[in-house]
Amino acid sequence: MKAHAESRTGNGTGSRGVEMAVPVVVGHPNRVPFAGVLTLVDVPSEKAPAGARGHRVVLRRLAAEAALPSLMGMAVDFTSQWDGHDARAKCGILTHAAIEGFELRVRGYLFGRDYPEVELGIDEHGEGAMGMSYELADAQVADMRASVWQLERVMFTGAAILLRHKAAYHGTSFRLLGEDGGPRRKAARRRPACPSRNARGRTTGR
Fold this sequence. Notes:
Helices cover 10% and strands 38% of the residues. The protein is built from 2 helices and 10 strands; from the N terminus they run ββββαβββαβββ. Strands 1, 2, 3, 4, 5, 6, 7, 8, 9 and 10 form a 10-stranded mixed β-sheet that branches. Strand 6 and strand 7 form a beta hairpin. The chain is globular and about 50 Å long. The relative contact order is 0.24.
């Protein structure tokens, strides 16, 4: 596998992306493609993310661009209530990330065969209900005394799928795709739900 970066300019804001090459396997039972908006750049969050000590945050564009490669190969996770993070409930992988306008967009795969309850839960909540939230390490804040923290340097360690209104940024999104990367057709017969793998009282955050 390899990763490559691309840069292009549009609408005066510019765009930058990275992608991890994954071999195409038609009909792979454990790959369910997805796309989403992980966060916004240069825009204050609506709520304080976990770990921000009650501060709303702004992820600066340069920090996000520099950290894009750290997203490649990182996992996406979920909680049984779709309300936060559980780093031990890794249900998929990120393979593409790009900043377009103010949106940090991602793509990847869910492990559909291993976690059928994730696909089922997303379908049950309906179109537009789901969002995303990033997970960070080594974040550098410009001024810890400021009411809104400006993140000048970060490293991404993963992401969570959660209900959109539970995310720190309400402008995030998450949707499942068809095998060809286009709109997904729901299966005629839905798979039965399995017991949640992360309903064991772990502490979660948003």
